[in-house]
User: Fold these one by one.
Assistant:
Number 1:
Amino acid sequence: MFIGIVVLAIVAAWIVITYNGFIRGSNEIKNAWGQISVQLKRRHELIPNLVECVKGYMQYEKETLEKVIEARNQALNAKDVRDSVAAENKLTSSLHGLLAVVERYPELKANANMLSLQEELTSTENKVAFARQHYNDSILSFNTRCESFPSVIIAKIFSFKPYEYFQISEAEEAAPKVKF
């Protein structure tokens, strides 16, 4: 009888500890997404300034500017993580296109405001990449728990599901082509 109670107590403790580990992991992922959101908001706030700075110089590049603005608006209106990831990938791609076009305008490249905005955008992109890495690391840890024995049992009982990674698109992986 005593051994049965001890075994039952050990099993109950394991369930509680494992469940709490899933909750902690889920909260870490939410926090990591929050950090990404802060950096993406900063990025979204920079884009109108970048577009305004470029607009006067790039009279013949209206389509490029419109793509950036459209992509920013889609990113701002994303409903969930999946939509946000897709919209941010599109925004990154359109920003690469804009910065490649900027290379065609030497006086714009030398403009102090443009240089400052490019530096700020580069810094923000680095922070987004760092935050995305932290987010994906948190997901890796959580998903490993969800799929590993014996914690997979608790994951199934309490309906913990693996999260999706914040992955970059193939377009984002490719370096922008600069034409002169």
Number 2:
Amino acid sequence: MNIETKLEELGLSLPAVAAPAANYVPYVISGKSIFVSGQIPFLNGEKMHMGRVGEDLSAEDGAAAAQACALNILAQVNDAVDGDWSKVVRCVKLGGFVNCTPDFTDQPLVIKGASNLIGEAMGDAGKHARFAVGAPSLPLGVAVEIDAIFELV
């Protein structure tokens, strides 16, 4: 699978790999898995999608934030496999946190922005397990943070 070609067809491209913001690594390869640390919706260092869904942002804005997180996830995986996606079997799981108001209950619709992009970019190999939960705040005031697990050959 060529992720960059698929993304180009969608009018997107892989961003620069984001450096960790604290004392952690962006991903860990353990056995046949890549564990990608939580990614936020900053693309190429540019802050975007700041605020709380249901207050400052709509569910659609949140889904756009989730898509940006997914782009960062794909960039981390691309870095982990040195651009050789033949080493990637599938996306196993996404975990999504939505910075939202207490009465907001559409977290699955927000995280769907990431799920859709992973599925479109990876086809059947992008079908994954997932969770989507609300949080009263997220680091740096972002709307969404998503982590991921991928299986390797």
Number 3:
Amino acid sequence: MLALRLVRGTHPLVLTRRLLVAAAAAGVGFLLLCTLGYAVGHPERSSASVLRLLWCLLPLAATVQFAVAVARTDPSTRPRPGLSAVGLGPARLTAIAAASTAVACTLGSTVALLFYLHLRGDITGLPFDGAAAGLLAADQPVPLAAALTLLAVLPVAAATAAGLALRPRIAPAAPEGVEKTVPSGLPWGVALVAVGLAIETYASRSGSGNGLPLPGGFDGNPTGVLAGWALTAVGLALAGPGLAHGCGRLLQAVRPGATRLLAGRVLMDESRRIGRPLGVVSAVFSGLLAASRLYGADGGSEAFGPLTGLGAALILACTTATLLTAALESRQGRAHTTEALVRIGAPPTVLRTAALLRAVALLIVFLPLTWVVAELAALPLRG
């Protein structure tokens, strides 16, 4: 009840972010239900049904990441003076954040179930009654227990991830002015990218030929190629913080002025918070670029069905929204520093120029990296 009361009194922008989480959850829930419909309509293809279900893990993971990012920026779950006296300590606020995340995802899952039943023709009186009856096996009854179990996966996973991300930690506050340690994931990330590209190249030349069917009919790539791309994506996510930290150091190189020094120092301090979602976005865009290289010239839109397109759109939208939310969290985290700079007379143009320099530095590093990884991933598949 307390979580619902906090929802009623929150800022419209905060509610908008929660509604975006609910919309993403609705998309994931619909994909899961469509996979269930395929399994019900094709009982003889159990292995294909399992593989389709596994493909839904990618948009589900992207949605969980977005839900956690939204929970981290929720002002109602931020510790404030005086709340512990009324029983709202850090542990209780963490529970409220997890409950709010579960409510948003459950709302989306409910919408997905209603829309699924409507497209099957089980709910009438609205436009598009039974429009996808053949695709969703409308001639078979919906296994309600299985449907509810699938729809419960995302709310439980998102609430658990939000609780773990926001749990109270017992750690000293670092002394003022002490430089944070360099992120240690860059060597591991580079190694995983190299291993993933090597596995993809070897698998494409082995000619095994057995593909993993995606929802919608995309089944052209062998298993090893997809596993290699997954390792490449994980490597980019691990390397993101280290690359962002390096961008901050480059901004401060060669006699930096006050603006470059401020931009580089902020980027180094926020490298962990902003680097990982930036690496994930780079991995997603590299995958999209590689797919466009492979299928664009051959009229490849026929290789992607509507459910594959929905899953790709969910992954792209959720990862991009996670990056923007992380940038908002970074801005909120340095609000006191910005206020102090304004109080001592720093011009607003300096702050805006520093933000622009940070964005340009990240684009200069991550855009070529994304293009290179996409080209290297698509190269062995063209031959």
Number 4:
Amino acid sequence: MSESVIVVENLVKRYKELIALDHFNLDIKQGEIFGLLGPNGSGKTTAINCILALLNYDKGNVQVFGEDMKPDSYEQKSKIGVVMQNVAVFDELTVYDNIDFFCGLYIKDKKLRKQYVEEAIEFVDLADYKKFYPKKLSGGLLRRLNIACGIAHKPTLIFMDEPTVAVDPQSRNKILEGIQELNRHGATIVYTSHYMEEVEQICTRIAIIDKGKNLAMGTTDELKKMIKKNETISIELLDLPETISEQIKALPHVYDMTYTDNLLKVFYSGGKHNLIRLLDFLKQEDISFGRVYSERPTLNDVFLEITGTELRD
């Protein structure tokens, strides 16, 4: 079992009457890409700021690299990279000088720093934009610059708070590939996003957070097993008599169904060969149908069932 890089125990953070973190717990292992998933106001960014000792909290304990994390834990912080949601670069500095400045906060050796800056520029594919100022960059290129500033000093723990917000699909893919590459080189990554498909694509484990609480944690497959929905079968039908609806509801493993705009959706909590059984039933009842498809639960289904709300972009 890998060592824990981050351990958060019973963290409580209040803003007057608002409880931003409510006995929040987290355990992130070395080498993970760990996803924090939650709606706006769920406590994701607050949790990150408390872990980084950028915010005081009311109760609880935070350990990073096996030691208590405090505002003056400079040795621990030198091993951490942060890419926050809001782009944080200097408009007065070029791409190269921005990366050099942030790298210089940790790497004092000029020769080594130059090497690291060049490697960061190559990593985010900004070699053609070294002399550009941030205002001349597109949203996607600006995000890549933001990432380069956060990872140039080669941290072993990287926080990425929604790094793909408002970027084009090509830049988004580039960023996701870069995150996986950083992880392959040994970095542990804490990743927040509103995009379910991103989290499902790159994260080894995921925590679902809402109202300051960690509601569920596990791999994508483990999270999907926590919910009732196991399979959804959708069938196009011109008509569905009420008597047939009642019989469908009585089929094995069916826990719910809907029929709207000529589309029948049947929800299953388990079982095998559900599709074959349902189609056989419709044929037996002489009911004609059109397109048919079966879907396994998505991360969005998990989020909806666990939190009671949909995660919106």
